[in-house]
Each structure stands twice: as structure tokens, then as C-alpha cells.
């Protein structure tokens, strides 16, 4: 999906917006698990979630390669929309986000604060996706999916930071939603280990 050189370039791009996030060993977790445990603090990004990394890579490429695009539209429950709103403001792209009725008030406010046009539509995520697709066709906007190459490459940068910043890892545990985080972690592991002289860096990803 992408090379180590492309991942390194994505990481440099992310670091233009924020300096990366810390990773620390947590003694209480280590005591409970019976093993040294490191935690990657993606809650320290400007939006409080790792998704921002994908939005930055996606929006930068879109603005650079397709400057004629009028704007982005997508459906979300929160973090994906926040990432697009933040990245859209940075790269001069108008962002429309469609959320279902009853979505988190706090996440809606965060997306609006980052400059997104927020539209509430439908009773669930699928109905919001349908409306976002309709708006894309009607208004000539780019439909931004929740899973795409640039999104995966962007979120993979946190795994690259972790692999560089932590000592040898035997296992890496990643939460799974639509899958960009876990796919990014697997690819970052494979690219970093293939480019490293130390086979000991090959962590299992769960």
C-alpha cells in the first residue's frame, strides 16, 4: 500500500502540524500485566485522536494534486470528521460533515470549531453516508471515505513513532473500528522491520 519512504514523508508532514505524541511505560499496567507495558498517547494530538494524522495526509495530497476540487464532504460520528475539518482548514479546503441526529454534542461542536459545515441527517451512520454521497454529487464535492490509502498511511505514522521511541516490543495491541489503525500498525511494523537491521523489532499486532 505504501513504502517506508512514503511513510517517512507522511510522518514529516504530520510533524508540520504537531510534534508527534509521547509514549511512556506505565508501572501500574506493568504490575497488573506482569510485563513492561508502553502506552502511546494519541489523546495528545490537537483533536485528541489518532485519526487526525490520516486527515492531514489525505487533505495535503488532495490540495496539492487536485487544486480544482471545491471541497470535501464525508459522514462521521466524530473523530474522522474532526480530522478532516482540522486538515481542511490547514490546507484551504472547505469541509462538510454529515452526522446522524443524536450525535455527540461535544464532537459536533469540535467539528464546527475547526471550520466544518456540519449537517445532521438521518437516524444512523448509513443514512449520513447516503446524504454525504448525495451532497458530493449535487455540489461537486470530493467524497472522503472513512478508509482510504492516505488515511491509513497517515495513521500509520503513530505506529512508526512508537516503534522508534519504545524499546523492543513483543506485541502491539491496537483498537479496531473500521480498520485504518490496525492496518496502519501492521504496515508500519512490516516496513520498519524490513528496513531495520534488528529482527527483534518485529512485534505481533493484535
The CATH architecture term of the largest domain is 3-Layer(aba) Sandwich
User: How many angstroms separate the termini?
Assistant: 20 Å
CATH level-1 class of the largest domain? Alpha Beta
Strand order of the largest sheet: 5-4-3-6
Spatial shape: globular
- Low-pLDDT parts are none
Helix content: 40-55%
Number of helices: 8
The major β-sheet equals:
4 strands, parallel
In the CATH hierarchy, the third-tier topology of the largest domain is known as Rossmann fold
Question: Taking all residues together, what is the mean pLDDT?
Answer: 93
- How many separate domains? 2
By DSSP, the count of extended strands is 8
Strand content range: 5-15%
One letter per element, helices H and strands E, the order comes to HEHEHEHEHEHEHEHE
Description:
By secondary structure, the protein is an alpha/beta fold. The protein has helices at about 5-15, 25-35, 50-65, 80-90, 105-115, 125-140, 150-165, 180-195, and strands at about 25, 40, 70-75, 95-100, 115-120, 140-145, 170, 205. The chain folds into 2 domains: about 5-45 and about 150-205, 3-Layer(aba) Sandwich (Rossmann fold), CATH 3.40.50; about 50-145, Rossmann fold (3-Layer(aba) Sandwich), CATH 3.40.50.1100. The protein has a 4-stranded parallel β-sheet with strand order 5-4-3-6, with helices on both faces. Strand 7 (about 170), helix 8 and strand 8 (about 205) form a beta-alpha-beta unit. The two termini are about 20 Å apart. The model has no long low-confidence stretch (mean pLDDT about 95).
Amino acid at each position: 500500500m505504501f513504502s517506508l519512504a512514503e511513510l517517512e514523508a507522511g510522518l514529516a508532514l504530520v510533524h508540520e502540524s504537531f510534534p508527534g505524541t509521547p509514549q511512556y511505560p506505565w508501572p501500574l499496567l506493568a504490575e497488573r500485566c506482569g510485563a513492561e507495558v508502553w502506552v502511546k498517547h494519541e489523546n495528545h494530538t490537537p483533536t485528541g485522536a489518532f485519526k487526525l494524522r490520516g486527515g492531514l495526509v489525505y487533505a495535503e495530497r488532495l490540495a496539492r494534486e487536485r487544486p480544482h476540487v471545491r471541497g470535501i464532504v464525508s459522514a462521521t460520528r466524530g473523530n474522522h470528521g474532526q480530522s478532516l475539518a482540522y486538515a481542511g482548514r490547514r490546507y484551504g479546503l472547505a469541509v462538510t460533515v454529515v452526522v446522524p441526529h443524536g450525535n455527540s454534542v461535544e464532537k459536533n461542536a469540535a467539528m464546527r470549531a475547526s471550520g466544518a459545515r456540519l449537517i445532521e441527517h438521518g437516524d444512523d451512520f448509513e443514512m449520513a453516508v447516503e446524504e454525504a454521497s448525495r451532497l458530493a454529487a449535487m455540489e461537486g464535492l470530493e467524497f472522503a471515505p472513512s478508509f482510504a490509502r492516505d488515511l491509513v498511511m497517515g495513521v500509520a505514522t503513530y505506529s512508526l513513532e512508537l516503534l522508534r521511541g519504545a524499546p523492543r516490543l513483543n506485541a502491539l495491541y491496537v483498537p479496531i473500528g473500521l480498520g485504518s489503525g490496525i492496518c496502519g500498525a501492521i504496515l508500519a511494523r512490516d516496513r520498519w522491520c524490513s528496513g531495520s537491521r534488528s529482527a527483534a523489532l518485529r512485534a505481533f499486532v493484535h
